[in-house]
Structures are given as C-alpha cells and as structure tokens.
Give the backbone structure.
Amino acid sequence: MKRVFIIHGWGGSPNDNWLPWIKFELQKLELDVFVPEMPDTENPTIEKWVSHLSNMVGIPDAGTYFIGHSIGCQTTLRYLETINVGVGGAIFVAGWFNLKNMESEDEKEIARPWIDTKIDIGKIKNVLSKSTLIISDNDDYGAFEENRQKFGEFVTKEIILHNVEHITGPKYPEILSEIKLLL
C-alpha cells in the first residue's frame, strides 16, 4: 500500500488550508494518508520536526510519498537527508530556502536555523527521484526566484501558480493532479 505523509506549515495544523481536502481526495484513491500534528508549531525546530516525521514514517520505501507545505517542505527535505533508501516522490508546495517579509524579530530567529543550516542536495537526489515544486509568483514571503533556483537543483518538475500568495486556500486541483501523476 502506498503511504502519503502531508506535512503542514509553521503555525499550522492538519486542519488548515487545503490539507483536509487533499487528505479526503487521496483517501478516495485508497491510499494510506497521514497528516501529523507537528510539535510546537508556533516555534518549529529542525530537530523536533524531523524527529517527529521520522517516527511517523517508520521504515520508508518506494511506496512512501511526501507532500509538504511551506516549512513542511523543509522538514521533508531534512528528513530525506537522514535516510538511505529511495522514496516514491514528493510535492513541495510553497517551499522555501529563504524568506523575506517576516513580521517580527522572533520570526526571524525561528527561521534562522531553517535558512542557515545547509541541506545536502546530493543526498536528496539519491533518495528522491521524482518531485514537483508548486510555487506562487506572489508568495507573501518573497524570495521567489531564489527559492525556484534552489529547488530547481533537484526537483523534476515545477508549476508556478499565479497570484495565490502562500498557497493557503481550501482547494488546489493542481496539487491533486501532481500527486496522481507522481503515484
């Protein structure tokens, strides 16, 4: 059975944005779908989030897929650095390597380790043969071209959505279509 792990964003939950809709749609395809509540969501740390995801996944394999939103993309990438077996694929929605337009110094401090701690792109390529970046051309957190370029080092497909900011609406058929293609 194929398993899909959907990782929400910073300050989010499994019940936010398009996550409940996509979970419902994927369950109709008879997939095992997991949308974990990530720990300390208002103050996410790499160690806690990657450890939590690792515990949820257990033993990954070619039937394991990931969908990340925002910092959920970072979490997925950092998790993939810790494994040595290929997974089925990943969809990165509103993913980032850098952020602009943060509202407070506290946000900047929380984001700093996520931005400053390098990700081993070579390692990601070894375990992730198929992946898609879905990104908005007017993301609230900016750095659009920089993030596209960095994801472009390893994703196999890119989709640019127009004027949907940080991709936080209730439904995006583009995400579902990409998952179906990935599977």
